[in-house]
Specification:
The complex is a heterodimer.
Chain A (H helix, E strand, L loop, with lengths): L7 E2 L22 E11 L5 E12 L4 E14 L2 E16 L6 E12 L6 E2 L2 E2 L10 E12 L2 E13 L7 H4 L15 E8 L1 E2 L5 E12 L4 E3 L5 E3 L5 E13 L4 E12 L9 E2 L1 E10 L1
Antiparallel strand pairs in A: 1-18, 2-3, 2-19, 3-4, 4-5, 5-6, 6-9, 7-8, 9-10, 10-11, 11-13, 12-13, 13-16, 14-15, 16-17, 17-19
Chain B lengths: L5 E2 L17 E10 L5 E10 L2 E11 L5 E6 L7 E6 L5 E3 L11 E6 L4 E7 L1 E2 L1
Antiparallel strand pairs in B: 2-3, 2-9, 2-10, 3-4, 4-7, 5-6, 5-8, 8-9
Classes of the chains: A mainly beta, B mainly beta.
Chain lengths: ~290, ~130
């Protein structure tokens, strides 16, 4: 399960994996909610990540909430270390009235990159694995069904505007670990997630085991050294991740959350730099 | 906020750092001319050494740009070209063996990120 051959699509960087936080339905007595988190990830080759983020949710009433989030990422590996802000997320969430133990939510959101995914070290281009953002403006559309102790999420993440100006060529990189991603163009993702929540009797601990299906809806492409666009064979397809979230209520207003994730099924080729063999995230939440 | 980035040291040797030895034969050369608002000086020289063609930028300097590339091009505009990689402190750029160098007439310095041509060297056969 934790072998070095196993890789998951990163659950923090692309954004689609964390959109379900916008669906939180339990605590409605507070109007403001802040999350501070840091995520460790083990990526392709020897790349390791530390990716903190901060997010703020404003609940306007029982139905509407709005979340903003900013990510940062430090990637360290054979090429060196590169750090930069990643993306800003703006997500609106609407929760419908509960009927027969079923409660639906919908969300719409955007992701804006802080970079064109062309960060370099000493003037040398780096693979997407070292970039803090995909360099795309993405639209999120999602829905959630809350039923008793279950949550079922469905979402799509569509790159609407491609600002990616990455200039990494495998030919000049001196390694076969990463594919060429010069002027990378990315296809959309679709996500399905099923989560089961278990609370201890004293309600201090909550365990949320979940399984996450991500389907990459097409082959990504890049511009080769002759200026011609090439599809990246095998970059489409299914990723299945297992994820266990453990949260501990420090008080009525605050909690700590530990998230551990690893993949079971991966795509053949993963040029987007979202690949993780293991992800561990620690998050602090405060409501007021 | 955007200045909060950290750029470490490059700890990996890129593939396309190669020298030119005294036995290399000069096959083509050309003097760089700037485009509007750009300052450039120096020559592009194409050498053949052990069946490997290489572009050398000789006594070269150019106005700095954000994402400058060295192109071997079939014309003075970057339409049909071979991207030889980033313009860095290195001065020699190997040409992939699949490329028929005789088909190419120019060396260009081009900013890929903002699609702006910086300098043009028309090649003359030696």
């Amino acid at each position: 399960m934790f072998s070095s051959q196993a890789f998951s699509q990163g659950c923090s960087d692309a954004g689609i994996c964390s959109v379900n936080h916008g669906f939180q339905t339990e605590e409605k007595s507070f109007k403001n909610h802040i999350e501070i988190a840091t995520i460790f990830g083990a990526g392709e080759s020897d790349v390791r990540y530390l990716s903190p983020y901060i997010s703020y949710t404003k609940r306007f009433n029982d139905r509407f909430s709005f979340t903003s989030k900013v990510t940062y990422s430090t990637a360290t590996g054979s090429f060196g270390t590169r750090s930069q802000f990643g993306d800003a997320f703006l997500i609106g969430n609407y929760t419908f009235k509960e009927k027969s133990n079923k409660q639906w939510s919908v969300l719409v959101g955007w992701k804006f990159p802080f970079t064109a995914s062309n960060l370099k070290i000493n003037g040398y281009s780096l693979p997407l694995d070292y970039q803090s953002s995909l360099g795309t403006i993405d639209l999120f559309l999602g829905t959630n069904l809350h039923y008793k102790k279950w949550d079922f999420n469905g979402a799509i993440q569509v790159p609407v505007f491609n600002l990616n100006k990455n200039s990494y060529f495998k030919e000049y990189g001196g390694t076969n670990d990463f594919p060429s991603t010069n002027l990378f163009e990315r296809k959309p993702d679709a996500l399905l997630r099923a989560t089961y929540s278990i609370k201890t009797p004293n309600k201090k601990f909550t365990f949320k085991p979940n399984v996450l299906f991500i389907y990459h809806l097409g082959e990504d492409s890049f511009e080769n050294i002759f200026g011609q666009r090439e599809n990246i064979n095998g970059s489409d397809g299914l990723t299945i991740n297992g994820n266990l979230i453990t949260s501990y209520n420090l008080s009525k207003q605050s909690s700590l959350e530990l998230s551990l994730a690893t993949p079971f099924v991966v795509r053949d080729v993963r040029p987007d730099g979202l690949t993780r063999s293991f992800v561990a995230g620690l998050q602090y939440q405060y409501s007021f | 906020m955007l200045s909060c980035q950290v750029e470490g040291e490059l700890t990996h040797t890129p593939e396309n750092i190669v020298p030119i030895t005294p036995v290399a034969i000069l096959k083509y050369y050309g003097n760089f001319e700037p485009t509007g608002g750009i300052t450039v000086s120096g020559d592009a020289k194409i050498y053949l050494e052990d069946n490997q063609y290489k572009v050398k930028l000789d006594n070269f300097s150019v106005t700095s740009g954000p994402d400058l590339k060295v192109y071997l091009s079939k014309s003075a505009t970057p339409n049909e070209f071979v991207n030889l990689g980033n313009l860095t402190s290195q001065t020699v750029y190997p040409i992939p063996s699949s490329v028929n160098v005789a088909d190419y007439s120019h060396v260009l310095i081009h900013c890929q990120q903002y699609s702006h041509l910086f300098a043009i060297a028309e090649l003359i056969q030696n």
